[in-house]
User: What shape does this take?
Amino acid sequence: MTRKAKAAAIAAILEHLYPETPIPLSHEDAYTLLIAVLLSAQCTDERVNKVTPHLFSLADTPQAMSELPVQTIHDIIRPCGLAPRKSQAISDLSKILLEKHGGQVPATFEDLEALPGVGHKTASVVMSQAFGVPAFPVDTHIHRLAWRWGLSDGKNVEQTEADLKKVFPRDTWNKLHLQIIFFGREHCPARGHDPKACPICSVYGRKELFVK
Assistant: This one.
């Protein structure tokens, strides 16, 4: 079976299991999504969603956020981890949005990735979920599943992203990356995974998964 054929079969399973893909990070617009995604680095979406209501009640625009002391941001987002770096990045990028982008989140990868604390994965999430631009954000979870399913031999998330973009149609990327995340959480976790019980690994998983 070719990778494209396998990808099509896997996509059908994911579509059956997750026909709806609500964005897991609570947000109101492109700016609050950007902040939430930045906070989600090395942190669960669930924890981010517990922190952002307080933060956004004080500041949900670049103007308001730029006026908050960095220490205030730090104290609120501390449960998300990496608070010193994230709080400074949130303050700095908010000021840059005001200075260079008229207070709006830019809708290009180049401009997003130039912002403090915003890497390619964060930019991809914002481009796909806020602006509807086809993108395939790959985090460590999607990277792991792509390897388990034999869709990528990538040694890093960049190669995995390139491999997945080759085997899945462009117009499915935005939904698929969320479907894979949902599937990983429910059926294909990093630890305690039983490939024989997994709806995808049991059929399409690498043989290495079944070797004790």
Notes: The two ends are 25 Å apart (CA to CA). Residues 83-100 form the longest helix (18 residues). The CA atoms of residues 60 and 182 lie 27 Å apart.
